[in-house]
Every structure is written in C-alpha cells, then in structure tokens.
C-alpha cells in the first residue's frame, strides 16, 4: 500500500511486444489494471487502424448477445450471475464464439418467424370457428326476413323491370359474406355500409367474448363477427371493397347448415393440432433461451474483454520490421515488478519465444496522478478529487480530510441523538457491505449514500462526541456528572415572587468554584434564558480557533510541497511571510481568546475588555488610557510590534520571489532535462534502469523558478503581476476565510434551534396531555416526530452541514497549499470496464 | 398469514418501533427521577406547582405514559418484524 501523502511516482515506459504475444500480454495487463496506455496514433481515423476488423467482429458479437439478452428478458427467464470472471479468450477461440452466437441468433430468428406464422394461422382458425358458431342464428333470421320482405321487394324494385311472370313470390337468392372485424371499428363500418349501399344491405353482428391474440404485437383485441346480406353482384363487390378498407377479414362460409357443421368439426380438429404445435414451438424456444441464459453473462464479459484488448492494440505502433508492436504507457514505479511478471505470463501463454521488453523513458510531460486507496480511503479521496485532481506528487489533502472533515461536520451537527442514528445507519451499511454491493440497486441516491458509508459512519461517530460536548440529545441535556450550579440556597419567597432568577456564579453556594462540569456543557444551561447568548460567544470563539488552526496547518503543508519540489526561494519568500502574516494577526487573536478565558474569572469578568475592540484598536493604533482596559502588561508594545511585522511581510511576498527569478534568468541557468529514450540491447524482459541518480527519477521541474521553457518567454512584468495577485488574494483571504469559519457557529446554532423546535412543537403535544390520554396521543405523535427528525434534522441538516464542511475544506483549507491541476491515472483495467457496463 | 404492509412500510415500522421503545423507555426513566430539564414537558398548570406532591404525581404519571407507549411499540415492532418476514418469504415463492 503506497503512501497517501503524495501521489505515486510514475514513469513513462515503452513496451516492445512481439506480434503474437501482444494479445496475451495486453490481456494480462488488463487483468492487472496498472498501466495507462497512450494513443500513439492520434491522427489515424478509427476505420484505418490496424485491428479495425477484429473490433468490428467484436461489435457484431455484442449485438448478437444483446439480441439474445432481449429475448431472454422477454421470456422472463432469470439471468444468473455467478460472479465468475473469465479471462479473455485467445483469438482462435473468438471464431468459435462467433459461430456459436451466429447459430443461436439464427435459431432464435427462425423460431420467432415460425411462431408468428403459426399464431396467425391459429387466429384465422379461431375466427372461423366463432363465425361458424354465431352465424347459425343469422341465417335463420335472414330466411324469416326474406319471407317477410319478399312481397315488398317484388313490388318496388321489380315492378317496372321485370315482367308479370316474375311476380308471384319467386324466392330471391340473397348473397352474403361473413367475417370478423375489430370491435372499435364496427359502428363506423356499419354507417359506411349503409351510406355506400344506400341501405340495401343487411348487417348482423355479434361480439366474440374472449379477446384474441394479435400475432404480431401479442396484444389482446376484441373482435366481432358480422354477416352481410345483399343482392346482386354490384353490391357484393362494393361490400367487399368496404370490408377491405376496414381491414375486416372475410371467411368463406357454407350456406347449408349441414356443411357448416362439417366445417366446424374440421376447424376444431385443426385448431387442436395447431395448439399442440404451438406449445411445442414455445417449449423449444424456452429451452434454447434457458441454455443461452446460463452462459450469457460469461459471453458478455469475454466479448467485452476481447473488444477492449483490440481497442488497446489499436493504440500501438507497428515498428519498422513489422514484427513487433511498440506501446507507450504510464505506470507506477513501485509496481514495475508486477508488470514485468504479467508480461512474462503473457508471453508464456502465447507460446512465443521472444520475451517482451519494458523500457523506462524520461519526459517533460506531467505524469498522471495515482493515489493508492482502499475501500475506506477511496471515499475521502473522491471528495478531494471532485475539487481537482492533485498535481503530480503534490501533497494530498485526503489523509487529513479523513479526520478533519467529519470533525468539522460534527461541530456543525452537534447532537448526540442524531449522531447516534447516523452512526448506526453507517454501521449497518458497513456491516452488510458485501450483501449490499451484490444487490446492486440501480437507484442513484442509494448509490451515493452507500458509496459514502465510511464517511457517514465517521460523521455520526464524531457527532456523538460533539453532542456530548454541547450536551445535546434531541435538544435535551443529560446531567451525567451532577451540575455545578445549585439552587439550594435561594429562598422560597424569592422563588415565589420572581419569574426569573439570576444565578450569580460569584456566590459560592450557587456555583462551586474550581469544580466545573467535567466534560461538556453544564446541563443547567438547557434551562437558562441566556443560553444562546452564552453559547454564541463560546461557539464563535471556537470556530475562529479551529479555522486559524486549519489554515496554519495548510500553510505548513505548502512548505512541505516547496521542499519536495526543491524550491528554496519559495520556502523563504512565500511560506515564511504567509505564516507570519496569519499568525501575527489571527494567531494573536486566538492567543488572546485563550488568555481571556484563562485569566478572567467570574469576579472580575465585568472588567474584561472586548477582544473584537482590542483587535480593531490594534490596527488603528488606538490604546486605552486606564490600566484596567489592558489584557496584560506590555500589550501596547507587543501589539505595535506584531502589526509592523505583519505589514512588513507583505512586500516580502510581493517582491522577493520575482527578484530571485530575475537574477536567475540573468545568470542564464540552463533548461532542465529533455525527452530521452533509452533502449538498451538487453534481451531479457527486465526493466532497463536509467543510469541516473541510482535509477531515481529526477523530480519534475520545480514550479517556482520559471524561465525554463525558452529564454525569450521570461517576462518580469507578468511575474510581478502574478505575485501581486497571489499576495492580495492571500492577505484578503486570511480575513475573509477566518470569518467564513464562523459558519461552524451558525450551523450548529441552527441545528440546535431546529431540534428544540421539533421537540417543543411535536413531541411536547403528546406529553402535554393529562392522565392516560397522554399515552394514546404520544403513541400517535411519536412516529411524526421520528419521521420529521429524520427528514429535517438528519437529511436536510446533514446535507447542509456536509456541504459547508466540504466548502471549508475546498476553499479555506486547500487554497493555502493545493494546486489541483493534475490529471487522473486511468489504467487499462477489465475490472473498471465491467463496472462501467454495469 | 397475510401480508398487510409492503416491504418498505414494514421495515420503516420496525425501525421506528425500535427507536420508540428505546427512547420512550429512557424518557420514562427520566420522568421517574424527576429530571428538572423535563419540567416544561409535564402537563402541569401554574396552580399545580404550589404543591410538591402534586408535581411528583404528575411526573410519575408522565413516566407511566411513556412506558405504555414503549409497550405499544413493542407490539408494533413485533408486528412489523412479522410482516417483514412474510414479505421476504413471499419474494421467494413468487419467482
């Protein structure tokens, strides 16, 4: 486990891989997940790269797999995830996989088409069956009507056209068509028929009770059986056209009842046969899908790995002899051994005799930043990286954030009851880590909470601690050690007469001197009217103390940076004046806060001078006349000295560094190293160590001394302006950031008040009823109290305190030393790839 | 037996019940020892404060109330736990 204090030392390495061994080596490196490959063909089109065919084949495989997955999901078969992680298969196996997928896809497609055809057939037969059943009654009606209407028909339409011998009741043959139509279309259909045929057709319809399955979409539709009686061929063609238009299916229906009965029997048998065939087809399809579902996860992983490997191989260069591939990659120096081993394994797997070579290179490019984290530290590293990835080898704020972040959160949250709930929640998530990770809920909010489980646990634990300090449990205080204040000697008549009693700590019977409440706030303050006044003073001072401490620590970390990057000029000209400026003004303020707390007790507290006024007067050089208004003797001289020292720091910050740079430029220092390639002839696959400083990389060019690029670029004006901006930013930032830390006070006050309001407005209702009614009401009120506590005080206030603690870290703390201009190390890793897809 | 509450409701009920049992139990104890910090939370009028014994009785009554509530939540908790079991069992059966 590398150190979290600075990012890992990285090196640019060159890999020489033999063409046959390349695939296996990249596969091994992907499993290892420690190298980040650079694209050596950036201006080559994606379609012109060497392995574009293989990538295309992989895409095809993935498409087939996705089709199969969709079919499996449609059939409702569960896909079992065994958690197996197969290695990337060798290229020759790819052909086998492709064949398998092709076969499966074709089979599925065939089965699907067959099933569709069968279903259509089935639908037709079913409709025919319904028609045959329902039309029996129609025909009987039609005969009756025909008998009735015949004389009228004969008179009207045939009186003129036909001769006298046609009269006399020759039964007119009515033609008919029978069919099935969607229920929704029926009214319009009827109306259309009526209009188009001028009322000379006769429609009868009845509904089919059971809905029928549409073969294409699989929906259930309601249909109706209809039969249309007409006379003559013209009407017949008209009726047929209308039916076509309304997409009604017509069926041949025999006229005589005997024929109809025969047909019905035939249809029934055919339906039964078809049903059997359909069932068998369904079974077959199901079996195919089940067997596919067993392997589909593994296939997906294999296909994705192959594709990833070929994508990576596309980044490589083919060398002149066309026999080996050259790759450039960033890798951590500490892990070179493991990379060598992986390369050796890959070469062995592929059966190649020529070993792969790894060379280290020097370069002026900034390497990527790589922090080795585990599941605990990765969450904190993530919140630091959200602001900006650390520059290469810069001091990493994350290890300090692990403690300071939950602590500042807790200062703002400060309730032991709420902290306990939060800690228990975090504890449950940590305890059930493995199970919850496997459940893999896709809900984004849950994922955020689960990812920060260690943060939540720590925040809760620290909140319990600060809850004890503020003596706040769901807004009530606990009297654990016995309060130091006592009402024992207040006379009864005083208690009766006055609504409010002032307890004077100077009186020994009221307050025992030299025996304060051992840990935390005395519980009597919970009942005091001036509780907030007292706490305000305490919390404000505490916030400023914490702020100045954190900022000074930040400045000290910047010294660590200057020393690592071998920048002595900055160490002297930036660090020392910055630290002195901060300490002379705000460090002094912290000192007199402590002094005032210690030096003044209850008897002389009325004489204590205000610290804020003292600080303001310090800068106005205004000094009080009477000796009482001084905190300590010699204050006048000391304060003048501090102010002058602080003011003197400012020109140091402004001018020293540019002056040194200008001097260095004048004496013509050479530029730093250039890109060197070292290819030694050694055929072993050991890393070729550069012969420079016992194989240590020279530290990257120091950021402070400029003028390293080209001689002409040195501009003293630019440097002065940059330094001036930096100085002003720092000096004004000192004041504003110190004031910004007062949010620690503000939020803890808000939280305490909200908590109190929730108790007195919600739970108090339940407790305020006399007698046993109180129990009933409290039973109903308590869930409301619980839900509101969680929603308002834990979630809302928790997020708020989280945000403000984060802001304090990102702006106030990190602006003192953190550049955050690096880029993240993104290694080629199958694990990361699979996680992305899931 | 039947599943009356869904999975989420039963888990919520279970957690609130546990919280209720612990908090109401402790609150009852604090009422019993007549903690002065709970002075504002008892249903006593100004007239009641004349007599010491009356205030003591009110404290005791509040303590009993809290324990009754804790007792009710024991049953609610058991019921929710039972529902949780039913829900998880149903999940196995349906698939």
Automatic annotation (TrEMBL), chain A:
GO cellular component, one term: vacuolar proton-transporting V-type ATPase, V0 domain
Coiled coil segments of this chain: 51-121
Pfam families: V_ATPase_I (PF01496)
InterPro entries reported in the protein's UniProt record: V-ATPase_116kDa_su, V-type_ATPase_116kDa_su_euka
Organism: Branchiostoma floridae
Descriptive protein name: V-type proton ATPase subunit a
Subcellular location: Membrane
Keywords noted in UniProt: Coiled coil, Hydrogen ion transport, Ion transport, Membrane, Transmembrane, Transmembrane helix, Transport
Family: Belongs to the V-ATPase 116 kDa subunit family.
Membrane topology: Multi-pass membrane protein
Function: Essential component of the vacuolar proton pump (V-ATPase), a multimeric enzyme that catalyzes the translocation of protons across the membranes. Required for assembly and activity of the V-ATPase.
Record-annotated membrane-spanning stretches: 407-431, 451-470, 544-562, 574-597, 640-660, 781-806
Gene Ontology molecular functions: proton-transporting ATPase activity, rotational mechanism
Major location category of this protein: membrane
From TrEMBL, chain B:
Localization of this protein: Membrane
Domain of life: Eukaryota
Annotated keywords: Membrane, Transmembrane, Transmembrane helix
Record-linked InterPro entries: RNase_K
GO molecular function, one term: RNA endonuclease activity
Main localization category: membrane
Annotated signal peptide: none
Keyword Transmembrane: yes
Bilayer disposition of the protein: Multi-pass membrane protein
Keyword Transmembrane: yes
Family designation: Belongs to the RNase K family.
Name of the protein in its database record: Ribonuclease kappa-B-like
Organism classification: Eukaryota, Metazoa, Chordata, Cephalochordata, Leptocardii
């Amino acid at each position: 486990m590398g150190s979290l204090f600075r990012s890992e030392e990285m090196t640019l390495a060159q890999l020489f891989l033999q063409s046959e061994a390349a695939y296996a080596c990249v596969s091994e490196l992907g499993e290892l997940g420690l190298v980040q490959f650079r694209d050596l063909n950036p201006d080559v089109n994606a379609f012109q790269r060497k392995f574009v065919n293989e990538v295309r084949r992989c895409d095809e495989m993935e498409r087939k797999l996705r089709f199969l997955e969709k079919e499996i999901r449609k059939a409702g078969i569960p896909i079992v995830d065994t958690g197996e992680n197969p290695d990337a298969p060798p290229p020759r196996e790819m052909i086998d996989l492709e064949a398998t997928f092709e076969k499966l896809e074709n089979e599925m497609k065939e089965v699907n088409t067959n099933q569709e055809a069968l279903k259509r057939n089935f639908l037709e037969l079913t409709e025919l069956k319904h028609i045959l059943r329902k039309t029996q009654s129609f025909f009987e009606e039609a005969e009756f009507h025909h008998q009735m209407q015949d004389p009228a028909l004969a008179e009207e339409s045939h009186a003129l056209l036909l001769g006298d011998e046609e009269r006399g009741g020759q039964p007119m043959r009515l033609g008919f068509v029978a069919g099935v139509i969607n229920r929704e279309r029926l009214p319009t259909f009827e109306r259309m028929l009526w209009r188009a045929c001028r009322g000379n057709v006769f429609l009868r319809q009845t509904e089919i009770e059971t809905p029928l399955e549409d073969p294409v979409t699989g929906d259930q539709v309601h249909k109706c059986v209809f039969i249309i009686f007409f006379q003559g061929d013209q009407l017949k063609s008209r009726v047929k056209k209308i039916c076509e238009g309304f997409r009604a299916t017509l069926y041949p229906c025999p006229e005589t009842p005997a024929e109809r009965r025969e047909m019905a029997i035939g249809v029934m048998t055919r339906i039964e046969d078809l049903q059997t065939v359909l069932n068998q087809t369904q079974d077959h399809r199901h079996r195919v899908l089940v067997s596919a579902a067993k392997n589909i996860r593994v296939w997906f992983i294999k296909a994705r790995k192959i594709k990833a490997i070929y994508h990576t191989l596309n980044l490589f260069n083919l060398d002149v002899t066309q026999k080996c591939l050259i790759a450039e990659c960033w890798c951590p120096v500490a892990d070179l051994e493991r990379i060598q081993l992986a390369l050796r394994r890959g070469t062995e797997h592929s059966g190649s005799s020529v070993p792969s070579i790894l060379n280290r290179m020097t370069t002026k490019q900034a390497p990527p930043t790589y922090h080795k984290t585990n599941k605990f530290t990765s969450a904190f590293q993530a919140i630091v990286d959200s602001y900006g990835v650390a520059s290469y080898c810069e001091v990493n704020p994350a290890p300090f954030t692990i403690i300071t972040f939950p602590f500042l959160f807790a200062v703002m949250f400060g309730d032991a009851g709420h902290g306990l709930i939060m800690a228990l929640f975090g504890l449950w998530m940590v305890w059930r880590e493995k199970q919850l990770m496997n459940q893999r809920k896709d809900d984004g909010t849950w994922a955020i909470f689960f990812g920060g489980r260690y943060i939540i646990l720590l925040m809760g634990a620290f909140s319990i601690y600060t809850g004890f300090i503020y003596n706040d449990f769901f807004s009530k205080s606990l009297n654990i050690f016995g309060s130091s204040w006592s009402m024992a000697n207040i006379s009864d008549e005083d208690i009766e007469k006055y609504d409010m009693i002032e307890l004077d700590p100077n009186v020994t019977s009221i307050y025992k001197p030299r025996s304060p409440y051992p840990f935390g706030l005395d519980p009597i303050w919970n009942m005091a009217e001036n509780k907030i006044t007292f706490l305000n003073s305490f919390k404000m001072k505490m916030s400023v103390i914490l702020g100045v401490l954190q900022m000074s620590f930040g400045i000290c970390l910047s010294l660590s940076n200057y020393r690592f990057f071998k920048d002595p000029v900055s160490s002297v000209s930036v660090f020392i004046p910055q630290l002195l400026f901060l300490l002379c003004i705000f460090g002094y303020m912290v000192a007199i806060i402590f002094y005032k707390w210690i030096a003044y007790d209850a008897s002389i507290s009325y004489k204590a001078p205000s610290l804020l006024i003292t600080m303001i007067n310090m800068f106005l050089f205004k000094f009080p006349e009477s000796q009482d208004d001084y905190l300590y003797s010699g204050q006048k001289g000391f304060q003048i000295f501090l102010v002058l020292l602080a003011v003197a720091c400012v020109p140091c910050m402004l001018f020293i560094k540019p002056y040194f740079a200008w001097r260095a430029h004048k004496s013509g220092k050479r530029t730093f190293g250039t890109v060197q390639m070292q290819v030694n002839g050694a055929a072993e696959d050991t890393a070729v160590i550069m012969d420079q400083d016992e194989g240590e990389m020279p530290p990257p060019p120091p950021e402070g001394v400029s003028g390293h690029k080209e001689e002409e670029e040195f501009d003293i004006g630019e440097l002065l302006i940059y330094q001036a901006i930096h100085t002003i930013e720092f000096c004004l930032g000192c004041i504003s950031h110190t004031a910004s830390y007062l949010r620690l006070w503000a939020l803890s006050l808000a939280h305490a008040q909200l908590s109190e309001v929730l108790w007195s407005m919600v739970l108090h209702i339940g407790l305020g009823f006399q007698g046993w009614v109180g129990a009933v009401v409290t039973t109903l009120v308590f869930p409301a109290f619980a839900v509101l506590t969680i929603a308002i005080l834990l979630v809302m206030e928790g997020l708020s305190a989280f945000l403000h603690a984060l802001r304090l870290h990102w702006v106030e703390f990190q602006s003192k030393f953190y550049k955050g201009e690096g880029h993240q190390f993104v290694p080629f890793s199958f694990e990361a790839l699979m996680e992305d897809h899931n | 037996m039947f599943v009356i509450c869904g999975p989420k409701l039963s888990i919520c009920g279970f957690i609130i019940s546990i919280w209720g049992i612990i908090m109401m139990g402790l609150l009852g104890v604090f009422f019993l020892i007549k903690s002065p910090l709970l002075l504002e939370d008892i249903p006593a009028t100004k007239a009641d404060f004349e007599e010491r014994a009356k205030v003591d009785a009110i404290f005791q009554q509040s303590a009993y109330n809290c324990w009754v509530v804790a007792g009710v939540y024991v049953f609610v908790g058991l019921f929710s736990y039972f529902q949780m079991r039913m829900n998880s069992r149903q999940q196995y059966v349906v698939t």
